[in-house]
């Protein structure tokens, strides 16, 4: 039997950039990000680099006719919906792209000048040539150093980033995203400037040097969202969120700092089904054993996160919780994402200090449970009271967890919150199997001692 084909028609994105033999940046990063974002990636390679996570060992620029042939081949065959540029390297390459600009829709220009390793990727003479390319851009995405080269504005804070963005828009760009990764501070603030508005995108800085490919990944993600038809602020916001996760969950490869995780969102989405199944497995254990000694009077809940969870939408739990009945335990409704409430907030807070933690179970605190937890090898951490600062202000949950775990290297097996009565203990685990094992261990101990 011959099966009928069922083709799909994703939008097409073209990247014009250099090749990175290390796979973390350049064309390789672009194509990974484009495909992960649901578009079809095409490319025109401007140069071949010999590089890895430790730096750039060599660069070979392709002849202009070869670059033109690649661009012509793509544009003559594909309905290109967005284009991004990366490493162009030489004046004549920048000028060549400018010549094609009126045929390059949704043109996102990442003015790559220096690699994350510090190696220069643009000849000084080509800097002035970028002015015409900036003028043709739908969006230009410089970091602070690149923005200073292009505008003369030293980007040291948000106000300076806004000034640099306004200068780039004044040069002809429809919009400018001045990235804040190189600007010191606990937060990273990326500033999007258009002729009409200014948007700031703020997220926590990640303590890592594994940022190889970050600029390529962000510009490719934005171009991909534009190809899907998103408006510019939405496309930039989604790109910034993707990059924040890609940096936090970087890929530990090579002898250098490593690379950002280009597929982080795609892999996270793919894990949603198995996460729900894992939570249901733990719920099934509780229903089967009906452990009244472990379950608070007003019920309990089980939560599980996707591998790269960053928000409550990535946390699955029983909607309405698991209630106690005369016949045992019963889930009020099914398992869904976003239903975890405070339990979701707690497990996300724990993941800030122990990212491998993914599953949690609310338990009834009792002397028997305290004794059983003390027999675990992993630490049990106790949170300080919610009001504990010298100025009397409330301390956010994430900070209370961070303070409580500051002296522990191993991930906690449980968190004890003295401000809560019966639901004061949360059992934690890196996977559903471990949570099942730990739950059964506690059940055996509590039932023996109660």
From TrEMBL:
The keyword Lyase does not apply. SUPFAM superfamilies: AraD/HMP-PK domain-like, Ribokinase-like. Keywords: ATP-binding, Kinase, Nucleotide-binding, Transferase. Transmembrane segments: none annotated. One of its GO terms (cellular component) is cytosol. One of its GO terms (biological process) is thiamine biosynthetic process. Residues 390-410 are annotated as: Disordered. Residues 392-402 have a biased composition (Basic and acidic residues). Residues 279-439 form the Thiamine-phosphate synthase ThiN domain. It comes from the Archaea. Residues 20-261 form the Pyridoxamine kinase/Phosphomethylpyrimidine kinase domain. GO terms for molecular function: ATP binding; hydroxymethylpyrimidine kinase activity; phosphomethylpyrimidine kinase activity. InterPro entries: Aldolase_II/adducin_N_sf, HMP/HMP-P_kinase_dom, PM/HMP-P_kinase-1, Ribokinase-like, ThiN. It holds the Pfam family Phos_pyr_kin. The keyword ATP-binding applies. This is Hydroxymethylpyrimidine/phosphomethylpyrimidine kinase.
């Amino acid at each position: 039997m011959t099966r009928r084909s069922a083709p799909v028609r994703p939008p097409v994105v073209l990247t014009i950039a250099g090749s990175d033999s290390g796979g973390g940046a350049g064309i390789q990063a672009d194509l990974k990000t484009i495909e992960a974002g649901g578009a079809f990636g095409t490319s025109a390679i401007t140069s071949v680099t010999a590089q890895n996570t430790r730096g750039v060992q060599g660069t070979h620029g392709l002849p202009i006719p070869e670059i033109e042939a690649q661009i012509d081949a793509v544009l003559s065959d594909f309905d290109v919906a967005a284009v991004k540029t990366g490493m162009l390297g030489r004046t004549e390459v920048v000028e060549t792209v400018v010549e094609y600009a009126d045929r390059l829709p949704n043109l996102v220009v990442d003015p790559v000048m220096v690699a994350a390793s510090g190696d220069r990727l643009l000849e000084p003479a080509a800097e002035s040539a970028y002015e015409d390319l900036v003028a043709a851009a739908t969006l230009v995405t410089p970091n602070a150093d690149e923005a200073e080269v292009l505008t003369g504005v030293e980007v040291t804070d948000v106000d300076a980033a806004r000034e640099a963005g306004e200068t780039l828009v004044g040069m002809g760009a429809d919009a400018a995203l001045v990235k804040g990764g190189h600007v010191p501070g606990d937060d990273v603030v990326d500033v999007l400037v258009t002729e009409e508005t200014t948007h700031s995108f703020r997220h926590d800085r990640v303590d890592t040097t594994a940022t190889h490919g970050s600029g390529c990944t962000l510009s490719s993600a934005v171009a991909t969202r534009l190809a899907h038809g998103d408006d510019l602020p939405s496309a930039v916001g989604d790109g910034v969120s993707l990059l924040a996760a890609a940096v936090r969950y970087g890929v530990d490869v090579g002898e250098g700092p490593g690379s950002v995780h280009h597929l982080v969102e795609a892999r996270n989405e793919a894990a949603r089904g198995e996460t729900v199944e894992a939570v249901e497995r733990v719920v099934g254990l509780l229903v089967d054993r009906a452990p009244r000694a472990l379950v608070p009077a007003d019920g309990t809940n089980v939560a599980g996160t996707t591998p790269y969870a960053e928000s409550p939408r990535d946390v699955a739990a029983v909607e309405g919780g698991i209630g106690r009945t005369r016949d045992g335990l019963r889930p009020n409704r099914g398992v869904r994402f976003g239903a975890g409430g405070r339990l979701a907030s707690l497990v996300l807070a724990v993941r800030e200090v122990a990212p491998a933690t993914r599953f949690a179970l609310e338990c009834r605190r009792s002397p028997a449970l305290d004794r059983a937890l003390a027999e675990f090898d992993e630490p049990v951490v106790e949170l300080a009271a919610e009001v504990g600062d010298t100025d009397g202000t409330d301390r956010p949950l994430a900070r209370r967890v961070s303070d409580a775990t500051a002296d522990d290297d191993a991930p906690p097996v449980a968190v004890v919150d003295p401000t809560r009565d019966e639901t004061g203990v949360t059992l934690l685990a890196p996977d559903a199997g471990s949570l099942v094992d730990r739950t059964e261990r506690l059940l055996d101990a509590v039932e023996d001692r109660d």
